[in-house]
């Protein structure tokens, strides 16, 4: 027997799979695991096991061969005991001769408690779930080629943090505090990344982090944690639909910054006055943004001592921009909660609007009330993503387990104390002249709205000396902007260009 084949078959024989079975699988049309698959699926987690499979995809007209490694890698305690197994999928382009110059993108989703499914099979990965052109579920469920994937320019690692996806804590005796908090999350994941990079010989590669939603808190903090605790330096961080990143915006600023999002949503639902409605979205929004900064924040700051006539004038402008009535805005003292907006905007038409993507409409038990009964966009996404990821991991990639793939896992209570992720990212950029940051936002995202994302970018660099390495991109969809077909293409192209621009030419020194 060929020594290499013998080497690969030994772990399979130990786990109860015969060489004959493996060879038969390799002759089949679908990809076959070559190492680490259990003989029988189980709900018991093996914290350190992998399988590999070979695939092809056509991206931008170019056929690309790639390998997927799926499996688990442990999180250890200080004594080398495995505390948890972290599930991952690692995509490598196989025709690359020099892996040292090949960028590696490490991808996280948010929650906290969300698996990496969303961006993996709907955004940057080489496989795409079946949805319509605006992101709504269709049947039959399934996946197909993603010819917009960034795999042409970078290898991609998708990571499921503890208790998401197939990732699990090994022992019930392990304290939850080791994983479920802002800073605990960053610490163990930085250690885990170090091990992964070492195991897969990726220390020489330009490295990027991409996070979505709470994943932006995670990767912003990881940028500094990797530098300070692992001595690992990044080329870029991509923040998709970012959180507040621990940046203070309480009081009048917090109340005012949501208005541009209200305006975008009202424009989409044709709830604005004709003179605003006839403008294009991106032509209309600068007017609202200027009003927010120059008039609304100062007005709310005056509170009870704002002149009555001025208060009424401000409320009239807010009504014009938001699609809400002047009366209801005055009733809320110019500070309209977002959950009320989602309930109120289309109340007269019998609908609510979505939190994470306000293009989606919902139907409540009753028209009365101050907030929607449910999030229609999240229900829609779980509808399409859950079958697709289970079919993909179990059937196409061949990862056999009886564990439930946890789309949204049990990670609460989560310790949100000590969130300095925005300042951590600024410090990492200051310490590392190579490090660039790009923000991607959907105009119709009401959970992590686009104008708050702009505000975070402004506050990340109050001195203005890093702004040539900070950029913001807007898209005509919601929290998962990539679900809309046009934004899938544009968003991936923006990432592609960001990677190319922030990967220095050989020998270019990192210095000021």
Automatic annotation (TrEMBL):
InterPro entries: AB_hydrolase_fold, Peptidase_S10. This is Carboxypeptidase C (Cathepsin A). Residues 28-49 are annotated as: Disordered. PANTHER family: RETINOID-INDUCIBLE SERINE CARBOXYPEPTIDASE, SERINE PROTEASE FAMILY S10 SERINE CARBOXYPEPTIDASE. Keywords: Carboxypeptidase, Glycoprotein, Hydrolase, Protease, Signal. It comes from Chitinophaga dinghuensis. Residues 1-24 form the signal peptide. It comes from the Bacteria. One of its GO terms (molecular function) is serine-type carboxypeptidase activity. Transmembrane segments: none annotated. GO terms for biological process: proteolysis.
């Amino acid at each position: 027997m060929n020594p290499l084949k013998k080497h690969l078959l030994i772990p399979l024989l130990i786990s109860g799979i015969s060489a004959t079975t493996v060879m038969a699988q390799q002759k089949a049309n679908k990809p076959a695991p070559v190492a680490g698959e259990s003989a029988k699926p189980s709900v018991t987690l093996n914290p350190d096991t992998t399988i590999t499979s070979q695939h092809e995809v056509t991206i931008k007209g170019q056929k690309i061969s790639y390998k997927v490694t799926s499996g688990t890698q442990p999180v250890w305690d200080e004594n080398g005991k495995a505390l948890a197994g972290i599930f991952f999928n690692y995509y490598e382009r196989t025709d690359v001769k020099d892996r040292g110059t090949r960028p590696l993108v490490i991808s996280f989703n948010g929650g906290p408690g969300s698996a990496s499914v969303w961006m993996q099979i709907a955004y940057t990965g080489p496989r795409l779930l079946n949805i319509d052109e605006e992101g709504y579920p269709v049947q039959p469920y399934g996946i197909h080629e993603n010819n917009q994937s960034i795999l042409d320019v970078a290898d991609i690692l998708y990571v499921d943090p503890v208790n998401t996806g197939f990732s699990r804590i090994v022992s019930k005796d392990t304290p939850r505090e080791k994983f479920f908090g802002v800073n605990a999350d960053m610490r163990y994941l930085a250690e885990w990344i170090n091990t992964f990079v070492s195991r897969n010989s990726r220390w020489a590669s330009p490295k990027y982090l991409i996070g979505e939603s709470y994943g932006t808190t995670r990767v912003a903090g990881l940028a500094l944690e990797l530098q300070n605790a692992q001595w690992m330096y990044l080329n870029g961080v991509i923040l998709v639909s970012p959180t507040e990143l621990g940046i203070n915006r309480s009081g009048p600023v917090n109340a005012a910054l949501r208005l541009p999002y209200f305006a975008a949503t009202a424009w989409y639902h044709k709830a604005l006055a004709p003179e605003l409605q006839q403008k294009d979205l991106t032509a209309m929004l600068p007017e609202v943004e200027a009003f927010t900064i120059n008039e609304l924040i100062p007005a709310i700051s005056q509170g009870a001592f704002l002149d009555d006539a001025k208060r009424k004038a401000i409320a009239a402008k807010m009504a014009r921009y938001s699609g809400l009535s002047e009366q209801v805005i005055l009733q809320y003292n110019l500070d309209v909660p977002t959950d009320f907006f989602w309930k109120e905007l289309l109340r007269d038409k019998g609908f609510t609007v979505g939190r994470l993507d306000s293009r989606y409409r919902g139907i409540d038990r009753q028209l009365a009330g101050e907030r929607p009964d449910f999030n229609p966009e999240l229900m829609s996404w779980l509808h399409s993503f859950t079958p697709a990821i289970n079919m993909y991991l179990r059937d196409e990639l061949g990862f056999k387990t009886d564990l439930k793939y946890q789309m949204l896992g049990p990670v609460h209570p989560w310790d949100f104390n000590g969130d300095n992720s925005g300042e951590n990212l600024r410090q990492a950029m200051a310490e590392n002249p190579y490090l660039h940051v790009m923000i991607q936002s959907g105009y119709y995202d009401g959970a992590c709205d686009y104008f708050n994302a702009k505000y975070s970018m402004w506050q990340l660099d109050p001195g203005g000396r890093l702004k040539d390495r900070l950029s913001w991109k807007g898209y005509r969809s919601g929290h998962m902007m990539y679900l809309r077909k046009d934004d899938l293409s544009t968003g991936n192209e923006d990432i592609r260009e960001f990677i190319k621009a922030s990967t220095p030419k050989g020998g270019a020194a990192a210095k000021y």
